[in-house]
Specification:
Shape: flat
Number of helices: 2
Helix content: over 70%
Largest sheet: none
Distance between the termini: 39 Å
Number of domains: 2
């Protein structure tokens, strides 16, 4: 049976590599010879990505913050 650690490593590696691949594909859209976009479009794209990264990152540390408060 797979341990929690092994499951985390397996899933985290797979999901991280998928995200990296998708970011690289998104980067292909930067080719002005093939696509027409504005700076505002680019700002919206990366703002959305950065927001989701911040949200995901927070989930990894939120338990540490919550555990500090005691009554």
């Amino acid at each position: 049976m797979e341990s929690k650690r092994e499951k985390f490593v397996r899933l985290a590696e797979t999901r991280t590599n998928k995200i990296i691949d998708m970011i690289r594909l998104l980067g292909n859209c930067a080719n002005k010879a093939n696509y027409d976009y504005s700076e505002a479009d680019v700002q919206k794209i990366f703002s959305a990505i950065e927001k989701e990264i911040k949200t995901a990152k927070t989930k990894f540390f939120i338990n540490e913050v919550e555990d500090k408060f005691k009554l």
